[in-house]
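As a warm-up, study this chain.
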Amino acid sequence: TDAIFCCFFLSLFTQFFSIIGMFGNGCIAVIYSIDWVKRRKLSSCDMILTCLGMSRILLQGTFTAHLLISDFAFWISIIHQVQVTTGFLSFSWFASCLSVFYCVKITNFTQPLFLWMKQRISGMISQMLQVSMLLALLTTIPSFWANYDEYLCNATRKFSENTTAPDVNLQLSYFYFILLVTVKGFLPFIIFLGSSVLLIISLWRHTRHMQHNASSFQDPRTEAHVNAIKVLFSCLVLYVCGFVADTVRMFPTCLTDRIWTPGVCSIVVPLYPTVHSIILILINPKLKQASVRILHSVKQYSETTNLLSTATRQ
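Now compare it with the structure written out below.
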């Protein structure tokens, strides 16, 4: 009974965050897609945000679909593959592209590499996104046909039955599994972490310099930089938690428990793209205004529908 209640609660929690995240990322994708249709072009930052929003819609849609059709094994397998690919796109590569773009554009480091990238980063975004999609697909292809959970757990069970002799195949299985997990997530994680830390350090130094020269600590520009540091640090913490949860979720069930570890990970994983999309909307005036208009339109439509249904009943 406790296990059933736990699964129900965790599923409800996951659904809640997934629906909110789909709405937030949907707003981002729709707003910039309309801009692209009108102007036939997008800025570099808008291009990254559009790809990030679309990949996160797919990712969070798979969480909802996974719960709705949990009895259909074939579709569950398809959804899992889409979830793995979009997860690494939205969690790792696209998020890393956005972090690198902000780092290069905002920081004032004088190293030759930074100066070279600052001049060319806007023209490199399209290629960076294409390479990100290619790397995400290539690094997730092995998981399309390899059931590591079943394979490693069976190998572990056989090894425990014959503990007198070392199993070379089992050791190789674990080696390839750890290698796959590392290659898929570690490189974009290091890129995101490094660029975010450099950006926070740069903003912190600039804020201290402004506080030293300003007559008051309540200077609006200083306050804006402090808020930016808080936002970046929050996003960094969310990303690290989401990355760890997504990595742990890949481990075989024989190495973890079957209820609490997958359950907690299923909450933390959709939490990052949901909260991050909300933060992006709140700190971007254009996205914030457009999202408010969308919410207002949805509210008006809901009120009109309720009035019509009431009038029809009468």
